[in-house]
Amino acid sequence: KGPAVTVDRGELLKKLMSMPNRRWQEIMEGAKANVESLVEPSIVKEIIKILKTNNKTCGAIGSIYAQQLQTFFMDLLNVYRVYSERISSTIAQQGPGATQLSLVRTMRSAKKEVLRLLIVFIQKSGPPEADPQAVAQGFIPPVLDPILGDYQRNIPNARDPEVLVLFTTVVEKLKSHVLSEVPKIMAAVFECTLQMITVNFEDFPEHRIRFFEFIRAINTHCFQALFNIPSEHQKLVVDSVVWAMKHTERNISDTGLNILHELLNNVAKTPDIAQGFYQQYLLALIQDVFAVMTDRLHKSGFKMHATLLRQMFHLVQMNQVTVPLFDPAKTPAGQTNPSFLREHISNLLIQSFPNLTRSQVSKFVDGMFDLNMDLPSFKTHLRDFLIQLKEFSMEDNSGLFGEEQDAQHRQQLEAQQAHRSAVPGLMKPSEIIDDDL
């Protein structure tokens, strides 16, 4: 056995990065003398090259990269700020079409490389060199204005979706360590992004996906922060989830359904929030899920529609909603949530689907409140009801059976695999799994 060798990783990192660091320093010295040097096309391209080198290095060496980032972090943010201001002033002078100018596109590429480097650093951060608490305290405050402020102030076409990716990564990686910063992050990105993506279902597709990933990350890792923001912003969060559910693009509608499911689960575990949330949103959410399920455009989400409706109806039937879902001043004395919801949903269905009889609706609604129904039974009950509707009767309803069809397909594949493996020579060597290896 040879002697133990101690390697100073920090010193090796300095040597590795000496050449790009030296060139970076020369560029920064030039910028101190004349900040206009930063926007020369050749310098912008050099900065992009240096940032890409740092990005690859960070991805390879992990959390020790924190030592390298510390050497130029503030310079990095200043470069980002300079390019942001130059892009904004160019757009202000020449209009939205300026985003297609060669220099503006190059500067935007440099901004994106800054964001990508920070994303990789956050992903790779961890003790001992980049402890989550230290990263949260040292990283978040300096980036709020250069990155979040720029995103908020810019025109929609100049906002980079990588900003949403960065702060989704921050929330997923640093979790409770950034709880106090989440309201500031949401204030900067939430409303302006929502205005971009709710005009129609087509514009800014990358922002749409990243925005809902951001909401889901907060709901999963910093749930309490959703209730530390102003009430009008809380309503915007719920409205945005509902809007996602109604989206015609399947991955966004599925994301909306999953966020709502996780949100309801988190609310149920938080008694000090639950009743206020139920009173304000539960009835509207039940109606929205019904609307999406019966619009014939979202059959692929049927399993989650059933899961959500069962969850919400059973909450009411089990008296876990203790606040009134109705206006006590407009209802007779002794009214209860289950009886109110039963009557409300019955009237809603009769108004929406005139071909249904009151007895059909009554039987269906009774089943919705049946606590003995497990999810498969509840799905069957819902499916039977939908197929009765005139709107569904002339359509291909195979989407309502998607889960069962997938299970059947898997069983057929497994049976074929079992048959082939039982007969020598039918399987290729690459398909054979050897448990001894």
Description:
With 437 residues, this protein is mainly α. Helix content is 70%, strand content 0%. The protein is built from 18 helices and no strands. It has helices at 9-16, 18-33, 41-61, 65-94, 102-124, 132-153, 161-174, 182-197, 205-221, 231-245, 250-268, 271-293, 302-317, 337-352, 358-368, 375-388, 390-393, 402-422. Helix 6 (132-153) packs antiparallel against helix 7, helix 9 runs parallel beside helix 11 and helix 14 packs across helix 15 (358-368). The chain is globular and about 80 Å long. It starts with 8 loop residues before the first helix and ends in a 15-residue tail after the last helix. The mean pLDDT is 88.
Per the principal axes of the C-alpha atoms, what is the gross shape?
A: globular
Approximate strand percentage: under 5%
Q: Regarding quaternary structure, how should these chains be classified?
A: single chain
**Number of helix segments?**
18
* Strand elements, count: 0
Q: Compute the separation of the termini in Å.
A: 30 Å
The helix/strand class is mainly alpha
Order of helices and strands: HHHHHHHHHHHHHHHHHH
Enumerate the spans where pLDDT stays under 50 for 5 or more consecutive residues. none
- Secondary structure: helix percent: over 70%
Using only CA atoms, what is the Rg? Answer: 28 Å
User: What's the story with the biggest beta sheet?
Assistant: none
Would you tell me the overall average pLDDT?
Answer: 88
